[in-house]
Amino acid sequence: MTESPTPTAAGPAAKVQPLKKGSLVRVNRLAYGGSLEAQASDPLPPDYILEGPGEIVALKGDYAQLRWRLPVPDVWLRLDQLEAFEA
To answer: What does the chain look like in DSSP terms, one character per residue?
Structure first.
């Protein structure tokens, strides 16, 4: 007799969808904070990148090009600094 696996407390909602072109994202404050990209930019990141949403318009290796719904330039950030945007 085999036992069926017990569902975890997190359940199916815990599955993380991979980020891809067209995904809506925001920047993870902790991952961005000590990064090389943060050191090369202003000391305080603008609120709009932390609040989101930004859209991934291109992917190249470990980096994503992000476009915001504001009249600001696109930026390239590492994928590990991004998280899916949840309204």
So the answer is: -PPPPPPPSSGGGGPPPPP-TT-EEEE-HHHHHTSHHHHTS-SS--HHHHH--EEEEEEETTEEEEEESSSS--EEEEGGGEEE---
- Structure confidence by residue, pLDDT tens digits, 57-80: 999 999 999 999 999 999 999 999
Is the CATH number of domain 20-84 2.30.30? yes
Q: In the chain, what are the domain boundaries? A: 20-84
Spatial distance between the Cα atoms of 83 and 23, rounded to a whole number of angstroms = 10
pTM value is 0.75
